[in-house]
Amino acid sequence: MPATPTVRVDAADARARARAALAAHDPADADLAARAVVAGDASGWPEFGLALLVRELRDARERTTTGRAGSAAPSAVVTGATATLDAYDLPGPVALATAVRRAAELARGLGVGVVAVRRAGGTGRVGAYVRALAEDGLVGVALAQSPATVAPYGGTAPVVGTNPLAVAVPRAGQGRALVVDAATSSVTLADARRRAREGAPLPDGVALGRDGEPTRDAGDVGALLPAGLLGSLLGLTVEALAGLLTGARGDAAGRGLWVLALDPRAFGAEDLADRADRLGDDWTRAGGRVPGARPDAEVFDVDRDVWDALAPATGGTP
């Protein structure tokens, strides 16, 4: 398959273009969503970058133009330290950014905030969103449930999604955070689809074919496999919290998201950032690499069609 034409872009320009495309939404949510999707491209995951934003904007516009957008239920219901958000009218990145903002507001006032989101679209890498919580001095956890594509450990049929989860803890210093961000499957669905388009094989041991047998044919995937027993159990955990609590499991209208924000001061941990730095130092001395420490690229390639779809000349509406 011939290579797709690309354009070399600066991360700051990409964020500005993404924000402009999201101008109809709350500015703070648009800014976080823009930073998150650009982080996908800048960290080498274009499937979770601007291309995802273009798709989500088109899907949201289609729901509006076909009259399928909107809900009889309130868009958000807040009860104490919890909130439930109906995100059917929102692009996926904006939905998760909104959930993060609301969770932070609750945590600032109550010490803890939990936001459950139903009927959400694709969000990209969830770690980019909770990083914002950590950079603001909070602890963040985000879970993203998705349609069934992954078999249980030792199983042969898909039961849960790739179900990524992320945890972010503040570290001392401006803009620093410890961020753990991982899918619970051996490969992401986006990676499998990209390999199928390119005719590239899958690694060994990451998928089963439609016949239930191991396969490396990305075009014949019947089920992805979990990242071992622990990955399988974590995927089940995400399904329970982000899928069952939101009612998203089995709901064709969208996915479930679950965001937790904690204010360290509510736990007497005002020095949490310093504690996280010491943990990072211990981790590094033992030969590990601290997650979230490596900076993203400031210049990267973007599919030209994706870049043009977000161009201001088009009104920012793909």
UniProtKB/TrEMBL annotation:
Q: What GO molecular-function term can you cite, just one?
A: oxidoreductase activity
Q: Which UniProt keywords apply?
A: Oxidoreductase
InterPro entries listed in its UniProt record: Mal/L-sulf/L-lact_DH-like_ah, Mal/L-sulf/L-lact_DH-like_NADP, Mal/L-sulfo/L-lacto_DH-like_sf, Malate/L-lactate_DH-like
Q: Which domain of life is it from?
A: Bacteria
Q: Which family does it belong to?
A: Belongs to the LDH2/MDH2 oxidoreductase family.
The name this protein carries in UniProt is Lactate dehydrogenase
From the broadest rank down, the organism's phylogenetic lineage runs:
Bacteria, Bacillati, Actinomycetota, Actinomycetes, Micrococcales
